[in-house]
């Protein structure tokens, strides 16, 4: 046995020992957070058993309720409510799901923790199925084999005794998990590795026992890679240690089993940090609704198949981000739909419509993989012409009304669909009883206009997700939430796969939807799960005889305006995005206006004179150069006239964006504005890699130096060192970038 790492943990907030068990839960359920070479884990079964003893391992241990309560009440090492403790916090023993379609559906639901929003995610039977009773049998077999051939493992498992030991064996918590490596070109055939995790709450230890299967299908412990995470306390100080049972035989494969130094340094540091981190995630674990193994294989397949899109990307957006994000989205949907077909006993692949499809790559991938569908967006993109005729993309504006329904479509997709996001559950509900939806909210929109916050206790993102969930519930969907693995800060999706009502109640449910939509006009939306609020007094519901039974709010009539046609809008006031995208990043402002603001701000900074020397301070030829002082953005804004400020406020980012656009002159850091010192920039550029220095050289002398023309002391750099032209005679024509060859 060897200790490969030991870390003292400062606990000013009295979060230990509960924080330790929360940290262990992360490593147990989401090891990919620390080990990037893992895709995740599948928790297969869980069981509470009695501690094995060498003298009686030949018999099945059977601890009573007294021992269980003693272990749960152990002073100083009891896990918090909801954390990984001696027994599951709720629900039955895992791994008892039945067979057949209903049993498979229940097993998948248990594995993914479909207990509703806020419910703890419990490990359960994996895709292969492993009953919890079999886990107990495997534990008994392992205990007997270790007692006969290697009792040292049992001693390592027990750890150092804590206080007076009771006569009866204490309770241990067993979890069987399969660790899933990432698939890739280097390891395309990587298979999951099973581990038995043994948690001893009384002693504060978590032991990881790798399992191997013999020719007869029996599981046994692979003693070479056994390791343990231990929490201990000395006086008033806490320590977390990582120990390896047999360091001389440790085998590192670089994926599932890293080097001991990584365990003792990287993993230990993360566990220590997580143990005293009081912040709790507002979101579920990633990929909680689908099989991680299937997702990993599907994602790698799609990544290899569509990676060349990065090379031919004709849009101005970042190809690395958008290509791999859409590949990940497509992988998620393909697995979700495959499992839905298994649950429902379907053979035909689901159809779809992507509302607000943007670059259309998600539509292209899903269509190429055999799902009939199309994408609709208000603006055509250049990349659309590259996909070919098999990818159906339409340029059109979507306005929520009875003409924009999709009765023959299985799924509606809203991937960063902006103003359409809250309408997608409504359109899906009214298209047909069997229509489902998938939305990935990004920008915050209500049914009309921007979404207004109502709860300061939540983050704006969390509150908006709850609002879209509320919309789905009001429309009659069971709404599920999942977190995707995409390169985006907005990666929580909401899914409506089934209804809360029978088809016979469609008419009454549509009246409820109408009342809910109308209530948003008066900001009277109900909390999730409750009946939507009644109509505001000023809102009148009309058009009872609408052909499709959908009521429309006559907002114009109620407020003295013109009546909205019933067949056009479900709620008057909705505005689809403009066909031509307006640039609001200050780039389209008149050049003379920009130059005037730049000159005015520069003079404000130069008035706060701060002298620096040019050349050797001891030389008589040195002179002072005014680099100016610094002002906050608020101070700068207070010096500008109201008309200028109002014009800047109509642009995204306003004054700060304009100053950052003029980075030759200004530097904006932490809300303060400075005159840029190009002597410092010159030193930093020397440290850039060769490729970036080559880009700088291509832009050399292609623009006039602002300091040479406007600064009272001229440029701080000599002409041959300044990247900008000191006068028209030095100007060089800008180099035209090479066009990428568009070949798929």
TrEMBL record:
Region annotated Disordered, chain positions: 48-133, 519-546
The record's Gene Ontology cellular component field reads: cytoplasm
Keyword presence, Transferase: yes
- Domain (C3H1-type): give its ranges: 699-729
Name the family.
Answer: Belongs to the TRM44 family.
Protein name as it appears in the record: tRNA (uracil-O(2)-)-methyltransferase
GO biological-process terms attached to the record:
tRNA methylation
Q: What class of enzyme is it?
A: transferase
Q: Which InterPro entries match?
A: SAM-dependent_MTases_sf, tRNA_uracil_MeTrfase, Znf_CCCH
Its annotated compartments are:
Cytoplasm
Q: Which keywords does this Swiss-Prot/TrEMBL entry list?
A: Acetylation, Cytoplasm, Metal-binding, Methyltransferase, S-adenosyl-L-methionine, Transferase, tRNA processing, Zinc, Zinc-finger
Q: Where is the composition biased (Basic and acidic residues)?
A: 48-71, 102-114
List the C3H1-type ZnF regions, as residue ranges.
699-729
Q: Where primarily located? A: cytoplasm
| Organism listed in the record | Canis lupus familiaris
What function does this protein fulfil?
Adenosyl-L-methionine (AdoMet)-dependent tRNA (uracil-O(2)-)-methyltransferase. Probable adenosyl-L-methionine (AdoMet)-dependent tRNA (uracil-O(2)-)-methyltransferase.
For this protein, the parts annotated as crossing the membrane are none
């Amino acid at each position: 046995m060897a200790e490969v790492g030991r870390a003292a943990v400062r606990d000013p907030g009295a979060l230990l020992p509960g924080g330790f068990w929360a940290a262990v839960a992360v490593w147990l359920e989401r090891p990919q957070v620390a080990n990037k070479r893992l895709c995740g884990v599948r928790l297969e079964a869980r069981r509470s058993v009695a501690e094995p003893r060498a003298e009686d391992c030949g018999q099945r241990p059977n601890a009573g309720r007294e021992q269980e309560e003693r272990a749960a009440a152990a002073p100083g090492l009891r896990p918090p409510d909801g954390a990984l403790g001696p027994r599951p916090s709720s629900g039955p023993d895992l791994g008892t799901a039945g067979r057949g379609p209903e049993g498979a559906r229940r097993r998948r639901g248990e594995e993914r923790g479909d207990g509703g929003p806020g419910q703890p995610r419990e490990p359960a039977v994996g895709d292969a199925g492993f009953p919890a009773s079999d886990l107990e049998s495997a534990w008994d077999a392992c205990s007997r084999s270790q007692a006969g051939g290697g009792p040292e493992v049992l001693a390592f498992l027990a750890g150092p005794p804590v206080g007076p030991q009771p006569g009866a064996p204490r309770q241990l918590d067993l979890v069987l998990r399969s660790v899933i490596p990432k698939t890739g070109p280097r390891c395309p055939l990587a298979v999951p590795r099973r581990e038995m995790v043994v948690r001893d709450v009384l002693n504060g230890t978590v032991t990881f026992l790798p399992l191997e299967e013999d020719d007869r299908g029996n599981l046994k412990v692979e003693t070479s890679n056994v390791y343990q995470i231990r929490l201990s306390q000395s006086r008033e100080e806490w320590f977390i240690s990582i120990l390896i049972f047999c360091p001389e035989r440790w085998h590192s494969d670089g994926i599932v089993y890293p080097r001991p130094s990584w365990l003792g340094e990287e993993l230990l540091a993360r566990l220590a940090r997580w143990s005293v981190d009081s912040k709790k995630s507002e979101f579920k674990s990633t990929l909680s609704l689908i099989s991680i193994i299937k997702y990993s294989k599907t994602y790698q397949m799609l990544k290899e198949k569509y990676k060349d899109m990065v090379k031919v990307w004709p849009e101005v957006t970042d190809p690395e981000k958008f290509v791999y994000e859409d590949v990940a989205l497509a992988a998620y949907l393909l697995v979700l739909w495959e499992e839905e077909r298994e649950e429902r006993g379907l053979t035909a692949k689901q159809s779809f419509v992507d509302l607000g499809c943007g670059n259309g790559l998600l539509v292209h991938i899903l269509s190429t993989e055999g799902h009939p569908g199309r994408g609709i967006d208000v603006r055509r993109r250049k990349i659309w012409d590259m996909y070919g005729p098999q990818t159906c993309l339409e340029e059109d504006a979507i306005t929520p009304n009875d003409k924009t329904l999709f009765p023959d479509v299985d799924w509606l997709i809203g991937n960063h669909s902006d103003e359409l996001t809250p309408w997608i559950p409504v359109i899906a509900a009214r298209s047909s009883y069997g229509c489902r939806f998938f939305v990935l909210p990004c920008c915050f929109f209500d049914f009309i206009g921007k979404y207004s916050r109502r709860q300061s206790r939540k983050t704006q993102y969390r509150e908006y997700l709850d609002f879209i969930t509320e919309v789905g519930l009001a429309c009659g969907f069971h709404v599920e939430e999942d977190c995707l693995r995409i390169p985006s800060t907005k990666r929580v999706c909401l899914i409506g796969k089934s209804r809360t009502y029978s088809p016979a109640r469609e008419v009454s449910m549509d009246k409820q939807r109408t009342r809910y939509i109308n209530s948003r006009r008066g900001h009277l939306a109900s909390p999730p799960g409750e009946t939507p609020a009644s109509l505001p007094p000023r809102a009148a519901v009309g058009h009872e005889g609408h052909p499709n039974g959908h009521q429309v709010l006559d907002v114009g009539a109620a407020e003295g305006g013109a009546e909205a046609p019933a067949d056009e809008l479900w709620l008057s006031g909705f505005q689809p995005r403009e066909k031509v995208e307006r640039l609001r990043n200050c780039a389209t402002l008149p050049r003379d206006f920009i130059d005037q603001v730049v000159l005015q701000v520069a003079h404000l900074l130069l008035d706060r004179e701060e002298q620096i020397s040019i050349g050797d301070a001891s030389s008589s030829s040195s002179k002072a150069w005014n680099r100016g002082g610094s002002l906050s953005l608020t101070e700068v804004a207070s010096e500008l006239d109201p008309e200028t400020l109002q014009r800047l406020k109509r642009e995204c980012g306003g004054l700060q964006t304009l100053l950052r656009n003029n980075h030759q002159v200004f530097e904006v850091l932490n809300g303060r504005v400075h005159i840029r010192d190009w002597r410092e920039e010159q030193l930093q550029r020397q440290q850039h890699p060769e490729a970036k220095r080559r880009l700088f050289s291509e832009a050399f002398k292609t623009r006039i130096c602002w300091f040479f023309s406007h600064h009272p002391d001229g440029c701080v750099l000599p002409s041959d060192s300044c990247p900008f032209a000191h006068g028209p005679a030095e100007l060089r024509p800008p180099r035209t970038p090479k066009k990428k060859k568009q070949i798929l």
